[in-house]
Amino acid sequence: MDTTNDPARTSWVTSANAPETDFPIQNLPFGVFRRAGTQDAPRVGVAIGDMVLDVHAAATTAPTQFEGLALAVGACAHASLNALMALGRGPVTLLRAALASALDAKNGEAQSVLQQALIPMRDVEMMLPAQVGDYTDFYASVYHATNVGSMFRPDNALLPNYKHVPIGYHGRASSIVVSDTPVVRPVGQRKGPNDVEPTVGPSRSLDYECEVGVFIGAGNALGDTIPLQSAEQHMFGLCLVNDWSARDVQAWEYQPLGPFLAKNFATTVSPWVVTLDALEPFRAPAFVRPEGDPPPLPYLLTAENEARGAVSITLEVRLQTSAMRALGEKAEPVSRTTFTHMYWTMGQLVTHHAMNGCNLRPGDLLASGTVSGPSKGERGCLLELTWRGVEPLVLSGGETRAFLEDGDVVEIAGWCEAPGMRRIGFGVARALVLPAR
Ligand code: CA
Predict the structure, then answer these.
(1) Do residues 141 and 69 both lie within one domain?
(2) CB of 321 within 8 A of CB of 327?
(3) Domain residues for 160?
(4) Are residues 170 and 297 in the same domain?
(5) Residues 90, 20: contact at Cβ < 8 Å?
(6) What is the DSSP letter of 398?
(7) What does the pLDDT look like over 205-264, one tens digit per residue?
(8) Is 144 a catalytic residue?
(9) In degrees, to the nearest 5, what angle opens at C-alpha 269 toward C-alphas 372 and 23?
């Protein structure tokens, strides 16, 4: 940890000092924004309380606060985070430290000039944080894998490779969208167990999956690997991910090659990317494998990763139906879990992905897979929560859900807390379900 994590630090942006904010001065996540209702070129900003600081404008206004950071500041004039991500961890760490210093309550000099680089969050439109070249989705919760396996393959719930090799598939980057982009219910081909023939139509079992994503910072050359010791040097930061899934389509199409059209119609990400530096106080030991489980193979095993490879993030899924919205009711929590339940750490996923020389590039997105825990309230998708629709969810207003209906809004929130440390949050990844076209 360093001074940027100091819980005593406050900001002259007073909304950042509110105890409930996701964006105190200890966080400073990066995102891409423009003024709402304009066609302005998008730019890089950091979230501070209920404001966004335009990083490039700030550095232009107050150059003495950003000395020696020309490359990182220059990258913030871009319309995506890719250029900043490509610089690797070091320059981003220094830039974030300079931003913390400029926004510090004790920095009256910066306060007097930086007001003009601040825009209220309610006046901005958030864009996709990065141009995602490649998207990979993993399957790193053993609880999720066991639950899903027992529904789809009752005799063979957890496949024998699971505890040796991180399971993943290559997803589709073109349909990754930022929070608040509506999601259209997909049409697909499905065949239920009692159907004679497959049929085509709007999915009848649209679902969400609550996940955490890592954006790759510095990449690796084709043919090179990323040892676990240096995996985190290749991570820019984490975000929230909703891997929307059409379960009826998935059940019919997934064998033998895995997910395809059931998954690639939309993936929602949160707009703010929280750096590993901000997450430092919330690091946790890797999953403790039960007696009898194999240890990770040597390339996926270091003492450092075992001791602090995980990140303690509380994840909550909330649902708001159109009826609730009409009554002015907020989204209602339906599950809450923690990211420390994952069988593999993000470092292990990065290292595994590159073990064959596959090149990861700045802005690539690796998602964790559905984050589910051992208890029912910790299940990160409706497939598990309702046990494939058999036990529908009952909302407090009496409405029920086996799967999502048109007009539903799904909101995933994430935050980190630790004794003596300042709480930080990810904001939300949220979207409205629209009817099929
Ligand atoms: Ca997934």
Answers:
(1) no
(2) no
(3) 135-434
(4) yes
(5) no
(6) S
(7) 999 999 999 999 999 999 999 999 999 999 999 999 999 999 999 999 998 999 999 999
(8) yes
(9) 90
- Distance between CA atoms of residues 262 and 289, nearest Å: 31
Q: What is the pLDDT of residue 192?
A: 87
**What residue type is 53 in one-letter code?**
L
Clarify whether residues 192 and 306 are in a common domain.
yes
C-alpha to C-alpha distance for 415 and 175, rounded to whole angstroms: 26
CB 393 within 8 A of CB 385: yes
Look-up of token digits 């009256």: 108
pLDDT value at 193 more than 90: no
CB 24 within 8 A of CB 49: yes
Distance 169 CA to ligand 1 centre (A): 9
Structure tokens at 110: 């910066």
Judge if 122 and 139 occupy the same domain: no
The verdict on 117 and 183 lying in the same domain is no
Q: How many helices (H) and strands (E) does the chain have?
A: 12, 26
Q: Which two tokens stand for residue 286?
A: 């890797």
Q: How far is the CA of 303 from the centre of ligand 1 (A)?
A: 28
Q: How far is the CA of 133 from the centre of ligand 1 (A)?
A: 18
| Strand locations in 149-295 (E) | 168-170, 176-178, 183-184, 187-190, 199-202, 206-207, 210-216, 235-242, 245-246, 267-269, 274-275, 283-284
In this structure, are strands 235-242 and 274-275 parallel, antiparallel, or unpaired? antiparallel
Tell me the sheet residues that pair with 122.
none
Token readout for 254 is: 């997934």
CATH number of the domain bearing residue 105: 2.30.30.230
Query: Which residues lie closer than 8 Å to 344 by C-beta, 6 or more apart?
Result: 138, 140, 166, 287, 300, 352
Report the half-sphere exposure of 51 (CA within 13 A, side-chain side).
Answer: 21
Please, which residues have CB less than 5 A from ligand 1, an ion? Answer: 137, 209, 243
**Rounded Cα distance, 349 and 158, in Å:** 19
- Exactly one of 144, 341, 352, 353 is catalytic; name it: 144
Q: What does the DSSP 8-state code read for residue 392? A: -
* HSE value, Cβ hemisphere, 13 Å, CA-based, for 42: 19
Burial class of residue 129, CB neighbours in 10 A (0-12, 13-18, 19+): buried
DSSP code of residue 296: P
Average the pLDDT over each of 150-159, 178-187, 383-392, 417-426 and give the range with the smallest value: 150-159
CA of 4 to the centre of ligand 1 (A): 33
